[in-house]
Amino acid sequence: MSSIDSNQDLTRIRREYLAESFDEQDLQEQPHQQFHRWFEQHRQLDPANATAMVLATASEQGLPSARIVLLKHFDQGGYCWYTDYRSLKGQQLAANPQAELLFYWPELDRQVRISGQVEKLERASAEQYFSERPRGSQLSAAISHQSHPVADRQQLERQVESLERKLDGDAVCCPQQWGGYRLVPQRYEFWQGRENRLHDRLVYSLDQDIEGQERDAWRIQRLAP
What we know:
Shape: globular
InterPro entries: Pyridox_Oxase (IPR000659), Pyridox_Oxase_CS (IPR019740), Pyridox_Oxase_N (IPR011576), Pyridoxamine_oxidase_dimer_C (IPR019576), Split_barrel_FMN-bd (IPR012349)
Distance between the termini: 31 Å
Largest sheet: 9 strands, antiparallel
Family: Belongs to the pyridoxamine 5'-phosphate oxidase family.
CATH topology: Pnp Oxidase, Chain A
Enzyme class: oxidoreductase
Number of strands: 9
GO biological process, one term: pyridoxine biosynthetic process
Number of domains: 1
Pathway: Cofactor metabolism; pyridoxal 5'-phosphate salvage; pyridoxal 5'-phosphate from pyridoxine 5'-phosphate: step 1/1; Cofactor metabolism; pyridoxal 5'-phosphate salvage; pyridoxal 5'-phosphate from pyridoxamine 5'-phosphate: step 1/1
C-alpha cells in the first residue's frame, strides 16, 4: 500500500458546526412547509445561489450521475426544473424515473435531501417558462443537443449566430426536446450541523395508501449522525 503524499493528505482540514439545536418540536407538520421555512432563511443570506441543487440520477443499470441544476418552482406537489430531454439526466430519468435532490446551505450548516419519483411537466409549463427566459438563454437551448459531443466552442457560437440571423428578431420557439421535470417527494431529510459532529437528522417518510386518510401522511424519525 503506497503512502499518502503530504500534499494530498486533507485530514488536518477541519471545521466546527456551532448551529443551534434542531428538534422534533421545531418541525412543521408538512415537509414542504419545513423546506419553505429553511429555504427562505437561506435565501435571505445567499439569494444568488438559493435555488442551486444537486440532482442525482441513475441509469437503468444503477450507474449514478450527479450535477447542479436550478430549482424553478415548488409546492406540496413537488420540485421542478427544466432541461433538454436528450441530456444524460433526461436519458437516465426515461429509463429510471427516480432521483434525489440535495440542497447544501453552508451559511446555516444545513442540508436537505429530497427523494422520489420524477415525472415530466405539462408542455404548457415548459413553454411559459421558456418564454420568460433571456433571449440568449433561449437561443442556447434551441441550438444545443445537451450532453452530446461538439467539435469546439466556436461551433456552438456559430450555431447561435446562425439561428439569430434566421429569426431576424422573431421569437425563439420552445424546442420540443426541451421541457420540465417534477420530483414528487417520498422522503425528506433535514440535516443540521451540530457541535462535535453530533448532528441533527430528522426525516419525513411518506406513508401512502392509508385507508380513509384525506392527504399524504408523513412519519417523522430521528437518525443517528
